[in-house]
Amino acid sequence: MFANYHSHTARCHHATGSQREYVEKAIESGFKIFGFSDHTPYPYNNGFVSSIRMLPVELESYVKETLDLKAEYKNEIEIKLGLEVEYFPKHFEDLLRLCEPYPIEYFLLAQHHTENEYDGTYVGFPTRDETVLQKYCNQIYEALATGRFLYLAHPDLVNFVGDDAAYESYMRELCRKAKSYGLPLEINFLGIWDHRNYPDRRFWKIAGEEQMDVIFGADAHHVDKIWLPDCEKIAMQIVAENGLHLVEKM
Question: What is the pTM of this model?
Answer without folding.
Answer: 0.96
